[in-house]
Amino acid sequence: MLRFVIVALIVLAAWALVLNTIRVMRGLKIDWTGVAFMVGFVALAFYLRHVSAMG
Q1: How many domains does the chain have?
Q2: DSSP calls for 1-55
Q3: 42, CA 20 to 30 Å: which among 1, 8, 19, 32?
Q4: Residues 22/16, Cβ–Cβ less than 8 Å
Q5: Angstrom distance (rounded) from CA 18 to CA 13
Q6: By the 8 A CB rule, do 49 and 55 touch?
């Protein structure tokens, strides 16, 4: 029972953190082109690492 309470509190805290992050992100002016480039660059790096088995 104690584990259930601890897990429920952790899930509740994570949910509150996600909601707070979403609320903050809506108010910011973000350059989504730069974010997309960064995510694509990291994804390409992981893909090339997987394909070439180097790194």
Answers
A1: 1
A2: -HHHHHHHHHHHHHHHHHHHHHHHHHHS---HHHHHHHHHHHHHHHHHHHHH---
A3: 19
A4: no
A5: 9
A6: yes
20 lies in which domain range? 2-52
The residue to which tokens 């909601």 are assigned: 19
Residue type, 30: I
Joined tokens for residue 13: 């805290």
Give the model's pLDDT for residue 55.
62
How many residues in the chain?
Answer: 55
- State the average pLDDT over residues 4-20: 95
